[in-house]
Amino acid sequence: MTRSIVVVSGGLSNPSSTRLLADQLATATDVALRGHGDAADLRVIELRELAHPLADHLLTGFPTGALAEAIEAVGHADGLIVVTPVFSASYSGLFKTFFDVLGPDLLRGKPVLLAATAGTARHSLVLEHAMRPLFSYLRAITVPAAVFAATEDFGGARSADFSERITTAATELADLVVGSPRAVPDDPFDNVTPFDKLLKG
User: Fold this and answer.
1) What sign does the dihedral 92-104-1-36 (CA atoms) show?
2) Nearest to 37 by CA among 169, 163, 185, 180
3) Phi and psi (nearest 5°) for 80?
4) What distance in Å separates the CA atoms of residue 130 and residue 134, rounded to the nearest whole number?
5) Residue 120 forms beta bridges with which residues?
6) Contacts (Cβ under 8 Å, ≥6 apart) of 90
7) Rounded distance, CA 56 to CA 91, Å?
8) CB-hemisphere CA count at 13 Å for 113?
């Protein structure tokens, strides 16, 4: 089966480390899906190319052209890989704007792999204090392993650990996309004993 994976890259430069990380995650996800006997239909959305249509959408309330196509692709995707550069200790404004204009239920139940890039590892908590709450609010299912990349992660002594983090996150995304039970942990609240029964012993 072919699975639609949409990659949203919020990088502002060309080339950018954000796009580089996005491509590495997409490749690893394709490999992981092939391990399930599936294939990935990968589509990359470069937000820098949608900056003007996004501004127009904020003013008019209607997406047009490439932006409308991008929103439709996200809605039909089996899974998302979202990557943002970090500015002022949070995701970029362009990244946030794109997800602001999506319908309120467009990401409901959709597996999403979170990733971010910055010049220093001091910004790594952006994944947990900014990105994960955003996608939880949008009712997406965020992959447990998120990937942060500082400048030193691209090559050098830490490259092996960085590659392992990419593989782990991509594997978890692929597992969620195909509905593998090992990717979705048991919810401890599924079988809760009522309080009155606990009181009765």
Assistant:
1) positive
2) 180
3) -125, 145
4) 6
5) none
6) 126, 130
7) 21
8) 35
Q: Could you tell me the two tokens for 132?
A: 């994960």
Compute the distance between CA of residue 179 and CA of residue 175 in angstroms, rounded to an integer: 6
Signed CA dihedral, 163, 167, 169, 170: sign only: positive
78 contacts 42 by C-beta, under 8 angstroms: no
Domains and CATH numbers, the chain: 2-200 (3.40.50.360)
Give me 9's structure tokens: 């890259």
What tens digit of pLDDT does each residue of 80-95 get? Answer: 999 999 998 899 999 9
Residue 38 · residue 31 · CB < 8 Å:
no
Per-residue pLDDT tens digits for 159-195: 778 899 999 999 999 999 998 544 444 455 556 677 6
Give me the residues paired with residue 43 across strands: 6
Closest to 115 (Cα-Cα) out of 106, 123, 104: 123
Specify the pTM.
Answer: 0.85
Judged by DSSP in three states, 117 sits in strand
Question: 5, 73 in Cβ contact below 8 A?
Answer: no
